[in-house]
Design goal:
This protein is of the alpha/beta class and 371 residues long. It has helices spanning 3-29, 48-58, 92-102, 119-122, 128-135, 141-147, 153-176, 202-212, 230-235, 272-290, 316-333, 349-356, 358-370, and strands at 72-73, 111-112, 178-181, 219-223, 242-249, 262-266, 294-298, 337-340. It has an 8-stranded parallel beta sheet, sandwiched between helices. Strand 7 (294-298), helix 11 and strand 8 (337-340) form a beta-alpha-beta unit. Residues 86-349 form the Histone deacetylase domain. GO terms for molecular function: histone deacetylase activity; hydrolase activity. Keywords: Hydrolase, Signal.
Length: 371
């Protein structure tokens, strides 16, 4: 084929790609409450490194939340470098913030920056031996293969900030009722090893810290990622004050499941209405019997029909309805909640970034209605 025709075809395909991304972003705006008017602050560049630098310069460490909007916890160091083509969409954490700003869901006044969490605060969940190996780059090749990551100092720093972000979101939610991180949900990490793109268990660490700081005694972890939260279940298997609920695809990773306090195992390819009906059958009962003082919500988007590791068939609207239902129910019970983004896998990175903003859009609607 002559070069000029190849060039024309390439340009046409790129135009179609960005039209598709723009369309999905516009569709997401329909999920927002009409009364949510936020001054427009577009981020025009698709270069996420520039986005990270812009955020770094415009943000500051905040210990007291002053904005009237939904608290959003983010740090540019949620992202570290990975090899080109790696399955884990590391830059999604910046992509989430970019689309939230571009679509006027949030303003930068709502964004709070966490501090990194040190080894000592992680030691309430993870073994000293594992933490020393992980922090110092001494994990074996087999241990690294199990996580899906080749060790780098940047990965350690990323985990410190992401875990600090989940804890900060919880601390703010304890005061304000609701807060959302743009990262978190590393539920496959066990006390003595990492697994499945999870190096330390931010949910378990943050829950343990809340208990230690006496901010909450009874904690519920609602994990709606498509994969069982096996690490979290194992960590709290003998802790009567932490209830682990995992609603996941039965025929999916991990092959060997742990025992959560409540495991809701789903058949492949169920869709929006059936999924939500099952959730509505179980979650109110847990709230009424366990009576948690605080909830961590893992809003993984890998149950989506287009997720490459999910095997369920939820739509964008189905994910929004799920998230809105969970947060609305918690708000009606007066239970504070911190949300994390959990898993999501797609080679179409832009659509994945947009999909991960659904929890923040649902939370914004709840915030405007209730808090």
């Amino acid at each position: 084929m002559p070069y000029i025709f190849q060039l024309i075809l390439f340009n046409m395909s790129m135009c179609l790609f960005y039209q598709n991304v723009l369309c999905q972003s516009k569709m997401m705006k329909n999920f927002l409450p009409k009364e949510n008017i936020i001054p427009k602050k577009h981020v025009s560049s698709l270069n996420l490194d520039i986005q990270a630098e812009e955020f770094r310069k415009s943000s500051k460490k905040v210990t007291k939340y002053e904005s009237k909007g939904l608290p959003i916890v983010h740090h540019y160091k949620y992202v570290s470098e990975l090899p080109v083509g790696h399955r884990f969409a590391m830059k999604k954490f910046h992509g989430i913030l970019r689309y939230l700003r571009q679509d006027n869901v949030i303003s930068m006044k709502q964004v709070v920056e966490p501090c990194p969490l040190d080894m000592e605060k992680m030691s309430g969940v993870h073994t000293t031996d594992y933490l020393k190996k992980f922090f110092n780059g001494l994990t074996s090749d087999n241990e690294q293969r199990r996580t899906g990551f080749k060790w780098t100092p940047g990965l350690v720093e990323r985990c410190q900030y992401e875990t600090g972000g989940t804890l900060l979101a919880a601390q703010i939610a304890h005061q304000k009722g609701l807060a959302c991180s743009t990262g978190g949900g590393t539920h496959h990490a066990f006390p003595s090893y990492g697994s499945g793109f999870c190096l330390v268990n931010d949910l378990a660490i943050a829950a343990s810290q809340l208990k230690e700081q006496k901010l909450a005694k009874k904690i519920l972890i609602v994990d709606l990622d498509v994969h069982q939260g096996d690490g979290t279940a194992f960590i709290f298997q003998n802790d009567l004050d932490v209830f682990t609920l995992s609603m996941h695809c039965q025929n999916n990773f991990p092959l060997t499941k742990q025992k959560s306090d409540l495991d809701i195992e789903l058949e492949n390819f169920i869709e929006d209405l059936e999924y939500l009906a099952i959730l509505k059958e179980h979650l109110p009962h847990v709230l009424n019997t366990f009576r948690p003082e605080f909830v961590f919500y893992d809003a993984g988007v890998d149950p989506h029909v287009n997720d490459e590791l999910g095997y369920l068939n939820l739509s964008d609207q189905g994910l929004f309805d799920r998230d809105y239902y969970v947060l609305k129910l918690l708000a009606s019970h007066g239970i504070p909640c911190a949300t994390v983004v959990g898993g999501g896998y797609s080679t179409n990175r832009e659509q994945l970034y947009i999909r991960h903003t659904i929890i923040h859009r649902a939370a914004t609607k709840i915030w405007n209605e209730n808090l």
